[in-house]
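One thing: can you check what follows?
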Amino acid sequence: GKELPIQLTILDPDSPSVNKITVDKTDPLNLFQLRDPVIFHGVNGAHMLMNTALVPKSQFQFPDTTYNVTVTFNDSSLVGSHEKSQVVFHVLISNSSSGVKKPVLPLNEFEAQARIFRHSAHLTRVVQPMEVLPHEGYFFRIVRDSNKGLLGNRIFGVTPKTGIVYVMDEVALARSTAKLFSLELTWRNRNATDRRCVITIRVLDSGEPSNECGIEPGHKFPSCAIHGTAESCTASCGRGANGGFCHWRSQSSPTLVEEYATCSPHLQTCPDGTCDELEEMDPLLCPQDCAGNVLGEALPGTSGRGVRKSAAPCTCAGPNTCICTQFFPPSQLVSRSQTKVYKETPNIKYQPLDVSESE
């Protein structure tokens, strides 16, 4: 979608080398994303100006006549000082098209859209219409109407506490010919407030069988986390990967950083520092967020699970251990077939020695 006609801007008297500013949002239905912040140096002398904007994630049914999003700029370099470390913007968004005649869902209903590839792996993340935490008391379910015989009800599942829709039957998805699926997701919280979301899922085909991972009954792909190089990662099929193939994230800095190099099925959520409900279902889906044992040039997560920061690429051979270290390919060893053994000195012709005396 297009940016909203509002710019969120701060001016800081410190230089960018001193500031450690992060930008976060509170968006209950996860309808918007933040544009990557733009930084201007040397404003009014040595000041720094940072600017961002809200961008709708996709087309959606506006949930109400108004909607609130909070955007927070936080400077972690001011921790412990007497200065305020946060600037908070409260954005009230009004539905200007509310007077246009078109089908409008009730206030307790809205729509969401998603796209996946037909040959996606088991437990591929599809969409999470509403970001909630497991302890907040929500219960999600997909309405399964046996009278309609909807194939999507069998292909897709949802995590009950946080509402993450995922691929449950990857074989049925790969064998289907449908290009659109429609799901009805409902949930309620402790206040017994029922809500409903209609999810439209568009299925994409790669077009070339050579670019597809073979989906067979009973077969499970290995974890993407076992791969330690970009070449091995992107050429391999992995569990939880949209389209089947794993994705590589490069190291952003040779020092301890949160954006460390690793192989993942879904880079937006793995790794993100949280072992979420879907990742809990399969310990091999994202050990980078869930493993309890972190070794090498890395720091564990604040909860004691997963890798928080690393100075080297991280691989996880199993569900509970990740190792972060520089990968050095083995030296080329000469095989026996390449080794020549001479029984006699080569290129020297032996001549008989004449020892007879001349007269």
Notes: The radius of gyration is 29 Å. Residues 170-175 form the longest helix (6 residues). The chain has three domains: 6-94, 110-204, 224-324.
